[in-house]
Amino acid sequence: MAKNTIEVKDLDFYYGDFQALHDISLEIPANKVTAFIGPSGCGKSTFLRTLNRMNDLIEGTKVDGEVLIDQKNIYQEGIDIVDLRKRVGMVFQHPNPFPKSIYDNVAYGPRAHGLKDKAKLDKIVEDSLKSAALWDEVKDKLDSSAMGISGGQKQRLCIARALAVNPEILLMDEPTSALDPIATAKIEELIEDLKEEYTIVIVTHSMQQAARISDYTAFFYMGKLIEHGETEKIFEKPDNKKTEDYITGRFG
Ligand SMILES: Nc1ncnc2c1ncn2[C@@H]1O[C@H](COP(=O)(O)OP(=O)(O)OP(=O)(O)O)[C@@H](O)[C@H]1O
To answer: How far is the CA of 229 from the centre of ligand 1 (A)?
Structure first.
């Protein structure tokens, strides 16, 4: 199996007594974009967060089943969570830069992992901002506050921040829903480029977006994975009636 592939086996997830995910099995291929779609509350974000154990931060939650990354179950005992989150980065719906300079935002992760060498940090900051298609816009104001750039730039900065620790997989939870169409188009273009190097999983409410940028689409409904396959197939010839109803806008 290719490196950076995610394989989910028989996954159940609970918030206290409430079971939010039911028996999910899914393979997420490396160096592709996989989109999670489905109506509000169907469990897309919860499922995304199980892929880097972000739900561990919520009290009273429980997971059964396995999430294998490079064939190793991330829920097995002895897994280093800091290392896992370094390998599986995350970008959220609302761009959330730290109230620090642009430079310090990108250097934050590498510094937290112990890197002090200024020349190396400079290189990582530059490379990450270039990969996030933001370098040209901010290279002359790296010491300015990250709070003073536009929403779309902030989101690309958050992507740069995630890339700075050299992840293998990037999880994106509705990364463009707070952005205008131009900023959205920039991020979509960027996602296309990033899949050359990273495995990308994106939660989106926009079916147009899923159709535009994803190679694979997984449709969730009430905590269950209803259908999964190549995006073209899911959108043009879904096997399941519920998928078809959702895609054609009959509910959701
Ligand atoms: N912290 C939490 N505690 C308890 N229940 C939660 C929590 N977060 C989500 N849920 C519940 O789990 C279910 C799945 O929620 P989730 O946010 O994963 O859905 P979603 O498909 O991402 O929704 P949306 O598209 O609205 O963001 C919902 O019933 C939700 O109410």
So the answer is: 23
181 domain-assigned: yes
Give this complex's ipTM: 0.97
Asked if residue 204 has its Cβ within 6 Å of ligand 1, the reply is no
Q: From residue 66, give the alpha-carbon distance in Å to each of 54, 205, 230.
A: 15, 26, 23
Q: In Å, what is the CA distance from 186 to each residue of 28, 132, 133, 155?
A: 24, 10, 8, 10
How many independent structural domains does the chain possess?
A: 1
Ligand 1 centroid from CA 34, angstroms: 20
Instruction: Write out the residue range of the structural domain in which residue 173 sits.
Output: 6-97+168-248
* CATH number of the CATH domain containing 18: 3.40.50.300
- Inside any domain, residue 65: yes
Q: Give pTM, 2 decimals.
A: 0.95
Residue from 169, 183, 155 nearest 34 by CA: 169
Q: Whose CA is nearest to atom 23 of ligand 1?
A: 41
How remote is the CA of residue 121 from the centroid of ligand 1, in Å?
A: 38
The 10s digit of each residue's pLDDT in 179-228 is 899 989 999 999 999 999 999 999 999 999 999 999 999 999 999 999 99
Task: Give the number of the atom of ligand 1 that is nearest the alpha carbon of residue 36.
Answer: 21
Q: Is position 113 within any domain?
A: no
**Is the minimum distance from the CB of 54 to ligand 1 under 6 angstroms?**
no
